[in-house]
Amino acid sequence: MLSIRLYQFYYSCILVAFLCCFASCKKSSPGGDGGTTVADATLAFTVNGSYNGTLSYPGLGTSPTVVINFSEAIDPATVTSGVSFTTGSSSVAYNQQLQNGNKTLTITPQQALLSLSSYTLSIGNTIKTANGGRLINPVNITLGTGLDDTDKFPRISDDDLLTLVQKQTFKYFYDMAHPVSGMALERNTAGNTVTSGGSGFGIMALVTGVSRNFITRAEGLARMQKIVAFLKTADRFHGAYSHWIDGNTGKALPFSTKDDGGDLVETSYLMAGLLTARQYFNGTDAAETTLRNDINTLYNGVEWSWYRNNNSNVLYWHWSPNYNWDMNVPIRGWNECLITYVMAGSSTTYPIPKSVYDAGWAQNGAMKNGNTYYGAQLPLGPANGGPLFLDQYSFLGINPKGLSDAYANYETQAKAHTLINYNYCKANPKAYLGYGENCWGLTASDIPGGYAASSPTNDLGVIAPTAAISSMPYTPTESMQALKFFYYKIGHKTWGTYGFYDAFNLQTQWFASSTLAIDQGPIIIMIENYRTGLIWNLFMSCPEVKAGMRNFGFTGPNL
């Protein structure tokens, strides 16, 4: 028995050794001893002369060179089928050159690649060696191009560029408005979901479009009649509208579980837009007279004082018939809600007293800041100013120039906040690709996989064109620089049917495909305020607004 076991052991060792030796050798071709061996191959590669240890190469130029070194000579006839160069679902034409006894393959694109784009170069296993061996380690190499300085669109005058941006952005609110209600879609993919606040911005955009002859006055009036007719029958909650509304039925759509009723802030944006339209459509004919009367009825129906929640000295953001005051969000400054207090204080039917403005909004001065950030002293608000929409939404209608009250000079506030944001992006402490004097603007926007309020204290690398462009009245030089960069230098990625897409990240080469009402609206409106002051002049001409702001202690040339 022992001899049999020893024989089995020795036989197993010999068999394993033979198999290991066989596996490490080159394969023999059919025909037995003395036949040609078939050599398999491995590859190594460089991109623009270097290898970074990965398969991903971002920030390349638009004419990268990829050199593939094979361990064995390859069959030239298999290169075409074994190499693919693509972007998305499109093929890229490339040049190929074999050298070094067919062991080195050089790949270059036939034409310059697009900047800020991603490409895939695949070296597949259909490549064979000269004597029929296989490629052991096929690869997919990602090639990401960086910024280039070429213009993506022909140069036009600055004035024509501003008009182009306004006209293209206007399409969001006119061409893509909800077909039944005429209201603005919450975003370009919103279906039947329209937004009350975004529609207020859209109404100001509509007035701008008529003034700029993008549409006729008759077309603008017809659209306003459709919107007002819809609002007369839509759900209201003590006069306030919900954030989201079904554009077909007028029924409230929950913004969140308990946010299914009145939204006072969104309602204030809507009412500011309606009052602006009322001042613009000032004709004596029956149609424009009826429109103005209907707008007055809508504004006078908002029970602003009721949203004090049992006469407390602050306004509350939400109320729901199902959850009452459970959202429990008092509206306190400094943020985007100054217009809410102005609308409430200007009401002739349900006004709030100055004490609510002072104690609720201004917190008796607690909203003051006074610190200096990035070279600018900030009168109000959070450290570093917060996202830029805080000094844009309210001032679409309220003219901050020369405007003051007990707490701040609002022209100083708006300019300081914007310059902090600009100087932060210029300093670029996180070293994000592209940030600088031509590429800046942090505000609330879409981000990869979600939505966030970007700011110097919450910088995710995402720039939103609306932030810099809507600051045009405050920082015209810096905003124009950014606008030109967004359009001329990266417009092939950022510019679409309805103007600029919502946001982008040059570091990761992410570009939104979305457009949002609350981001598109300020672009067209604030460019117009910069150019002519149209929307400021209309809104500030409202007699009830003048009276309400004076009662709160505001002073300025427009009051």
Report on this structure.
By secondary structure, the chain is an alpha+beta fold. It folds into two domains: 38-145, Sandwich (Immunoglobulin-like), CATH 2.60.40.1220; 158-551, Glycosyltransferase (Alpha/alpha barrel), CATH 1.50.10.140. It contains 16 helices and 24 strands. The strands form nine sheets. The protein has a five-stranded mixed beta sheet with strand order 4-11-10-6-7. The protein has a four-stranded antiparallel beta sheet with strand order 3-5-9-8, with no helix packed on it. A three-stranded antiparallel beta sheet has the order 12-13-14. Strand 13 (244-246) and strand 14 form a beta hairpin. The longest helix is centred in the first third of the chain and has 23 residues, at 2-24. The radius of gyration is 32 Å and the shape is elongated. The termini are far apart. InterPro entries: Cu-Rt/internalin_Ig-like (IPR014755), Glycoamylase-like_cons_dom (IPR019282), SbsA_Ig (IPR032812). Residues 330-543 form the Glycoamylase-like domain. Residues 63-139 form the SbsA Ig-like domain. Residues 1-23 form the signal peptide.
